[in-house]
Amino acid sequence: MDSNPGDDDRISVSPAEMRALRNEMQRFLLEYRFGMQEIETKIGILRDEFLYLHDYNPIEHVSSRVKSPDSIVDKVARKGIEPEFAVVREHITDIAGVRITCSFVTDAYRLFDLLTRQDDVTVRTVKDYISDPKPNGYKSLHAIVEVPVFLSTGRVVVPVEVQFRTIAMDFWASLEHKIYYKYDRQVPEGLIESLKDAADTAAELDARMERLHRELHASPEAAAAARAPHRGALAV
Predict the structure, then answer these.
(1) DSSP-assigned letters across all residues of the chain
(2) Which one from 161, 189, 193, 204 is the annotated catalytic residue?
(3) For this structure, is 17 an active site residue?
(4) Considering the entire predicted model, what is its pTM?
(5) What pLDDT, on a 0 to 100 scale, did the predictor assign at position 232?
């Protein structure tokens, strides 16, 4: 019987090679999972300290994820890099991610400082979308940090993306993601403008709630001064 056209062009991969590739991918992703867990542990310690030793805990909740193999493959294609583990390790730094949702904007910066001042945490890059939001209104403080992970084979340094945002920022970002997913990123212009307006409203809410928080924790004299109308420099 004649072979089908194109049979000679097929790539033959043995079961042993497939298992070896699978195991290599598992080892590759495990490093990122361990790096993510290192960051989670550090944030968990800070949260417990605030909870038990202070009268205020700035951490609302923490979430984390490691990109799936499919997501990594998609990003390799978008970036146009070689599909090799060493190249991926060098050029893709958000395979492991931790998101820290805070009560207030000042908490985001405070937790960033507390995390990055630790001796075994190295800051690689920082993108401050809180002070300089994206054009669509997105706000968050992004940092790529490196942490050491100690395996049976030795020490490896793992990059982890850490995001700090407020509850309002997180709510807006979650809604924006769902809308872009629903419209396959082809969002109608009117809806984009509404999203930007919602981002501005969320920023106003953050500012108002932070003022209330400061007033709540201020001395009676400072609270009264904060509530008093501003008279201006020319008042007599």
Answers:
(1) -PPPTTGGGPPP--HHHHHHHHHHHHHHHHHHHHHHHHHHHHHHHHHHHHHHHSS---EEEEEEEE--HHHHHHHHHHHT--S-HHHHHHH---SEEEEEEESSHHHHHHHHHHHHTSTT-EEEEEEETTTS--TT----EEEEEEEEEEETTEEEEEEEEEEEEEHHHHHHHHHHHHHHHHTTT---HHHHHHHHHHHHHHHHHHHHHHHHHHHHHS-HHHHHHHHSPP--TT--
(2) 161
(3) no
(4) 0.80
(5) 40
